[in-house]
Amino acid sequence: MVKAIKKRKSSLELGIIKKLKEEEKIIEWIIAEYVVGVNSKWHSYDFPSSQLAKLVLKILNKPNTKFSITHRLVKDILKKWEKNGICKFIIATKYAHCRGKTKKIYRFTDEGLKKIKELIIEMIINSIRKDDSLLLRLSEKETMKTREKILDDFLFDFHEMIESLVSKSEIDDND
To answer: N or C: which end of the chain has fewer CB within 10 A?
Structure first.
């Protein structure tokens, strides 16, 4: 009887896998925050994988040469979420400028958005426990605001700006 020899992974391979897992957690966080934010502001439920990959590159300040790797990670996260019932695969469309490359469009359900919000809260709690400074900095953005809260904040900032302009013009008039 021949036993199958299990190939051991080198320390380099294990390091790469660990790094990808760390990046996957951050990318998952970015996607979750973005999807919830866009949905709460614009009632959008459909998101192309390429759009999410471009967002990740922009937030992490990575060059466009990393797009294919990032897009692969984004698609893997979306596949995982699809298995967990967070989103549904809708269609794969081809890019206009190249033949072989496709972007996948996923639709997030109301129940899936609820699960994402739970995931975000869990990630915040875990990042506080582990003192994960990157996730804590990313969580400083408030994307889970309601429309009313967003409008209230905007109006408050607007009124403060008007008051500062009025007070500045009064000071200039007195001089």
So the answer is: N
Residue 128 DSSP SS3: helix
CA nearest neighbour of 87 among 77, 72, 97, 101: 77
pLDDT at 92 over 80: yes
More reliable by pLDDT, 29 or 20: 29
Pairwise CA distance, residues 172 & 175, whole Å:
5
Dist. CA 116–CA 75, nearest whole Å: 16
Written as six digits, the tokens of 123 are 């990630």
**Mutual orientation of helices 49-59 and 67-83 as an angle, nearest 10°?**
120
Q: Looking at residue 65, what DSSP letter applies?
A: G
Packing angle between helix 11-42 and helix 110-130, nearest 10 degrees?
130
User: Residue 5's Cα: distance from chain center in Å?
Assistant: 40
Tokens representing 30 are 């970015």
Q: pLDDT above 70 covers what percent of the chain? A: 77
Q: Is the pLDDT of residue 24 over 60?
A: yes
Phi, psi of 31 (to 5 degrees): -65, -45
